[in-house]
Amino acid sequence: MLRGLSPAHPQRGEEGTKDELVYARLFTAIIEHRLQPGMKLPEDALTESFEVSRTVIRKALQRLALERLVTILPKRGATVAKPTIAEAKNIFAARQLIEVGTLDQVIANIRPSDIAELREIARQEHEAQRVRDHRQAIKLSGQFHVRLLSIAGNDDLTDFLVRLVSRSSLIIAVYGSSWSADCKCDSHDALIALLEAGDAAQAKAWMSQHLKEVESALDMSPEEDSEPDFKKIFSEMDG
Length: 239
Hints:
The chain is 65% helix and 3% strand. The chain has helices at 18-31, 43-50, 54-66, 85-101, 103-109, 112-130, 134-150, 155-175, 185-197, 200-216, 230-238; strands spanning 70-73, 77-80. The longest helix has 21 residues, at 155-175.
């Protein structure tokens, strides 16, 4: 089973428990932008929707908060996390370190079956882009990056990347359109060719540039001062 944009730490043997199922549904809804950054997650409404107790909802929300997909504030409840510009830049910096840094080991371990899986994900991503299924394209793009890193054989780094990719989805929702900031599958095809050729140097250069391009597609310019221009407002009224 391919690891992609799915709960970072699925607990085998507990998939059928209520809190695990609620967590998984909320996780997916967040990374697919069905629940937007900043959206409130009231316990009452979630309890009614999932037909579970408040305890189950709280467990799921607390787990998502640990993964920084949800923000919980005293007396204000839970909301979908809304990454700041600084956080967004940090996430892409971390992805650079991990995804570029592991490519030597990826190439050392990669097998024809891995190449075939990566090609299939890229094919599905291309189809999602063709029909403009933004949510599926984002999910498959993340799945490609996570599956690639998993070939290095470091489960801890792979789990960490799942979290980074999930938070990248929130960043895309806040700072750019899902379409413009999404990875392009034809460039993923270019990487696959480099991996198949065993060209580590070019693969690293490609990955570094690729992540920079994804980040640059986002509008992370500083927000303007929120204080209104009173002189302009009132002069226009007088005019």
